[in-house]
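Lab manual, section 2.4: Encoding a predicted structure.

Procedure: take the sequence of the chain (69 residues), apply the prediction step described in section 2.3, and record the output as structure tokens. A sample record is shown.
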Amino acid sequence: MTNQIPARQAPSIHSRSFHHWPAEYAEHSIDKGISEGTLTADDAALIRAFVAEIKATRGICQGRANKEY
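Recorded output:
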């Protein structure tokens, strides 16, 4: 399987470059929530702990973890 997307074909789960989400994206969202006042520091800590727990127990990938944030 290659990471190249043939012309005129939508990206799929096999085109890794399209589906890569760095952990910083989720962290940025949490930091933005804190700075805007929609999240407290306690909220952020609970979210981070929850996502760390499900990553460890369910073996989810970073992309799924970002969706959980």
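Check your result against the sample. The mean pLDDT is 77.
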